[in-house]
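RECORD TYPE: protein structure
NAME: Sterol O-acyltransferase 1
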Amino acid sequence: MSELNSSTNSASSSCGSSDGESNGVGKRAQRELKEEVVKDMAIDKMREKMDSLVHKLEKDVERKLDLLVEDLVGEVKLFNLKNYKLRELFKESSSSSISTADGGSSSSRGRNRSRTGGKLPDKEFVARNSLLTDLFEVKHIKTIYHIFVVILIIMFLNTVVHDFVDRGRINLGFRPIVAGFGKFHIALLLWSCMQIATLCVYPSFCLWVFVRKDCKKNESRKVWDISSIFGLVLYQCTFVAFVIKAVLWLDLPPASSVAVLMEMTRFVMKVHAFVRSNIPRALEKTTKTAPEDKPAYAVAVPSF
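PREDICTED:
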């Protein structure tokens, strides 16, 4: 009987201890649940405050923008901006019309100039301000531009705060850009090879000029010219095929592939423009001289 009583007492004590442990675990779980609820409530409260702040800023910016637009329209009506501001903004058009009345502008003279011997007319470039540069001289246009810059900054900050509060980290979206421009060093090496191949056109062109001057007979000159034209076409086709095959073989990412293919198109245009503009000059000269356009300048200037 004593043994039975001792076993009963031990069983009851073990049940009491297990109940105490379960109660401790339950209290800890309840405490953690309360902490999570409080944390969620704090985050929701912060999100509501941020949303209300952003909404308030948007309303203020929209109200100020409406006031500025109304002020601009009022000034246009009162001070007749068409006669004062637009005369300064579009002074280039008035000057071009005056030059046309005096004998035609430079562009019209270039279009009407006849091509002699297949030579392209010389282009005349005039330094002038862009339309946006002249528009930003107006005070209200500049203010509207600054407002849009502020809106862009507010949207950026809103995205950063939302990502930090909602996800616990800031995601600026640079990962797709880095992935798109992967293998950039390989693309740069391929671009260097294209640059060298493009610069090789200049000595080839000089060789064509020098050999053509040495040819005394017209038939030999014609054969040399036709073979040079076929060589140029073969060079262009080989250049395009090599670059496309290299892009596919190297398995470049999308952004790097687009950059390399666009540079390939630019180099093809450069070669054609260099040869097309220098052939008439080379045919007119009787001495053995190199073309005037330098290859580095021809590659660096804009294509259009």
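COMMENT: Confidence is low (pLDDT under 50) at residues 97-101, 103-112.
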